[in-house]
Specification:
Largest sheet: 7 strands, mixed
Strand content: 25-35%
Number of strands: 13
Number of helices: 5
Distance between the termini: 40 Å
CATH topology: Deoxyribonuclease I, Chain A
CATH superfamily: Endonuclease/exonuclease/phosphatase
Shape: globular
Helix content: 10-25%
Order of helices and strands: EEHEHEEEEEHEHEHEEE
Structural class: alpha+beta
CATH architecture: 4-Layer Sandwich
Strand order of the largest sheet: 1-4-5-3-2-13-12
């Protein structure tokens, strides 16, 4: 198996925090023990209008106020990452730490942590095998939050152009990679499948935040929005939050899961496809331009 490089936005040798820009707003004080985790495949910062706009993506990341961000398909070009880092700092007024596994020289798969909420004691990563082996990986961060340790993993499996058997193999590798880490665990990423049997190597042991969101959906919880009745992340549901082994007493509790509506309302049309949309994905979502062809999904966990 070939080896791909791990990297930081700042291209440092160790995961140093990104410092807030001078004059930025002070980080909010934490008044609860809720860990907010985002999953988002940013499609190399290309929106459904065809525009490659890194700052648009960074703005949406910052505005959700997540504590941990799992990000897929981040461009590896350092100047692009530098722009996004500066904008994330400017919009959020926060410090951030990050770790990436650069896949196939063009995509970065990784984890970004809001340092005012969490600290990170270790980072690791591993390439996955499969048809698109040099383009897929899993990244791990040991996150310290509210005096507790939570192991977070971000992954990106082979696309639908690869046979389902390839993703089955990768799910097995993820199960093996995550097994030695202490509980609780949160496994997040773009799994590129809706096949429940493919995911059984993980679902047999872990809870599914999306399934919880569907079963507990009420309008005030806002798990899905009006035009996205299926709660899709990309034409279907292929992005996931798995958490906490089922076999262990609950250490963290899922209290919210939601699909975020990132459509630009200035480009929105009430029916059909917005004339600004050049990459059509699924009917309801194509009524307005989105910054990526994936919807972000958020999950919130109580860490007592």
């Amino acid at each position: 198996m070939s080896c791909c490089a791990s990297a930081h936005w700042g291209a440092t040798a160790s995961p140093a925090p990104i410092t807030a820009a001078s004059g930025g707003s002070a980080p909010p004080s934490l008044t609860d023990n809720k860990l907010d985790v985002m999953q988002w495949n940013v499609h190399q910062n290309i929106g459904t209008d065809g525009g490659n706009l890194p700052l648009r993506v960074a703005s949406h990341m910052a505005l959700q106020n997540a504590d941990v961000i799992s990000i897929n398909e981040l461009p590896t070009t350092q100047s692009v990452r530098d722009q996004m880092r500066a904008h994330l700092i400017a919009v959020s007024g926060q410090q951030w730490s990050d770790w990436y596994f650069d896949e196939n020289g063009s995509n970065g798969n990784g984890i970004i942590v809001r340092s005012s909420a969490c600290s990170v004691s270790s980072w690791t990563s591993q390439e996955l095998s499969g048809v698109q082996a040099s383009d897929r990986s899993i990244v791990q961060a040991t996150v310290n939050f509210n005096g507790k340790t939570v192991n977070v993993f971000s992954t990106h499996l082979d696309s639908s152009s690869a046979p389902e058997s390839s993703r089955v193999t990768q799910v097995g590798e993820i199960a093996t990679f995550t097994a030695p880490y202490a509980n609780p665990k949160i496994i997040v990423g773009d799994f590129n499948t809706t096949n429940t049997s493919t995911l059984s190597g993980i679902t047999v042991n872990y809870h599914d935040a999306w399934a919880w969101g569907i079963s507990n959906y009420t309008p005030d919880r806002s798990f899905k929005y009006t035009d996205n009745t299926g709660a899709y992340t990309r034409a279907n549901r292929i992005d996931y939050h798995f958490f906490s082994p089922k076999s262990q007493p609950a250490v963290i509790e899922l209290v919210e899961a939601r699909i975020v509506d990132t459509r630009d309302m200035f480009t929105y049309v009430s029916s059909g496809v917005s004339p600004n949309v050049t990459l059509t994905v699924v009917a309801g979502d194509d009524k307005g331009v989105r910054p990526s062809d994936h919807n972000m999904i958020m999950a919130s966990f109580l860490v007592p």
